[in-house]
Design brief:
The chain has about 425 residues and is α+β, with helices and mostly antiparallel strands. The strands form five sheets. Strands 9-18-17-16-12-15 form a six-stranded mixed sheet. It has a four-stranded antiparallel sheet with strand order 1-8-6-3, with no helix packed on it. Strand 13 and strand 14 form a beta hairpin.
Length: about 425
């Protein structure tokens, strides 16, 4: 009997994911632990491995489709299994097809009301319609078997906006239309009828005819926005700033890179220093679970990586045990795969602290938002030459500023201050970083 392959829950609280690719062709056999599907989340690409030997009888979802977690995406059989009537087998499994192998009835997860006709719609189209205040039952589907797809929602919204715009120009006061991610509606504008009306609006409207472009939000950008908004709203942030003279650190880096195959960056040394400081002040090596303060014996550090579609924070595990060359190699691999969209979900989970560095952009200092449930995030600025006073003498030294954002729920201010003192001391006497 065939069985269904369903969209897995890649990470906690995810409700959907994009079917990125089918590495296995239809009617092709595979072995246990072979990758049979590739799934894309907000920040990572995840390989779905087969649990046992089998054959891919049919795919139910095309590449690039957003699918609800738990929805069927393919039909699998035993290695030697043949099915004469696959549609009948799917019906027996509770999956209705549209005649082309698609399974919209199971994919969208919505049952029709008694006495109504089911309107098949892709999960993305259904979500866009809901956000726009459109009824799926009112839409005309142009996808396979009359399925409602994204372009149908966009067409309906464009038609509604055009109608609203015409009504606004006729007589009515300006009313904003409902925004839909991925859709750029035109907004009618009209001059205010009095100075009082004009000055009471906040913010003031852009001058008539000013060109603008709306960039649709990517899945990653939405996820980052939601996560950081929640962090800022729920985690009580406080900040500790430190200033370190890093001339000796830069000299150490130059010695490490002299003739080396793997180049060590300043950020690699900072990541090692963070791990060492966590060992010296173990009360910082924690996270907030809501029920307890969880302490760790090893130090896992997230490293912020900027990509074309947003920021990701892969986790370097066991940094206290790694050599500086190993840290540099692992970080370079993370950066390369992050920019290609090939990070695994497991590589984005864990850690008690994040390091984010804008020094390469010439930024002196900044403060970052916590990456929950981690207890802290270190924002690193540029290393610059400045005038400093040493024993009453004016000197020129290379100075680096860092700001530690801390969650006050698991960590007290004195603990964070002790950590910053230890961290600055390590940067100024960097040989201890490598011990």
């Amino acid at each position: 009997m065939p069985e269904l392959l369903r969209m897995p829950e890649i990470a906690a609280s995810t409700t959907s994911a994009v079917l990125a690719g089918w590495p296995v062709s239809i009617n092709t056999r595979f072995s246990a632990q072979d990758v049979i599907a590739t799934v894309e989340t907000d920040k990572a690409v995840v390989d779905v491995e087969a649990e046992a030997d089998g054959i891919l009888l049919r795919t139910l979802v095309t590449e690039g489709t957003e699918v609800d977690v738990g929805a069927p995406i393919a039909v699998l059989g035993r290695p030697d299994e043949t099915v004469d009537d696959l549609d009948a087998a799917l019906a027996a499994l509770g999956v209705a097809t549209s005649g082309d192998g698609a399974a919209p009835a199971a994919a969208n997860g919505h049952a029709p009301a008694p006495g109504t006709t089911r309107r098949f719609a892709s999960p993305l189209a259904r979500r866009l319609a809901t956000e726009a205040g459109l009824l799926v039952a009112d839409l005309v589907g142009t996808g396979p078997g009359g399925r409602i797809v994204r372009r149908d929602v966009e067409a309906a919204l464009a038609q509604r906006v055009a109608h609203e715009e015409g009504t606004l120009h006729d007589a009515s006061p300006a009313v904003p239309s409902v925004p839909v991610p991925g859709v750029t509606p035109r907004i009618a504008s009209r001059a205010p009828e009095s100075a009082e009306i004009a000055t009471s609006r906040t913010p003031a409207p852009a001058p008539a005819g000013t060109p603008f472009t709306d960039q649709p939000l990517s899945r990653m950008r939405k996820a980052v926005a939601a996560r950081l908004t929640d962090s800022k709203a729920t985690a009580p942030h406080f900040y500790v700033r430190g200033v370190a003279r890093v001339d000796r650190l830069l000299e150490l880096r130059a010695e490490l890179n002299d003739g080396a195959d793997v180049r060590v960056s300043v950020n690699d040394l900072i990541v090692k220093a963070v791990a060492k400081a966590h060992q010296l002040v173990p009360a910082m090596n924690v996270i907030w679970t809501g029920e307890a303060i969880r302490s760790f014996s090893g130090v896992d550090v997230s490293v912020a990586v900027a990509t074309g579609s947003g920021l990701v924070t892969p986790v370097l595990t066991g940094v206290e045990r790694r050599s500086i060359t190993d840290v540099a190699t692992a970080t370079q691999d993370f950066v390369a795969r992050a920019r290609e969209g090939r990070l695994q979900q497991s590589e984005l989970e864990g850690g008690s602290v994040t390091v984010t560095n804008l020094g390469m952009y010439g930024v002196d200092e900044f403060a970052a938002i916590l990456n929950p449930p981690q207890a802290s995030i270190l924002a690193v600025g540029a290393a610059k030459q400045e005038a400093v006073v040493t024993d009453g003498r004016l000197e020129v030294a290379t100075v680096l500023r860092a700001t530690l954002s801390v969650d006050h729920r698991p960590v007290d201010g004195a603990t964070a201050a002790q950590w910053m003192s230890a961290f600055v001391g390590l940067l100024e006497r960097p040989v201890r970083i490598l011990s």
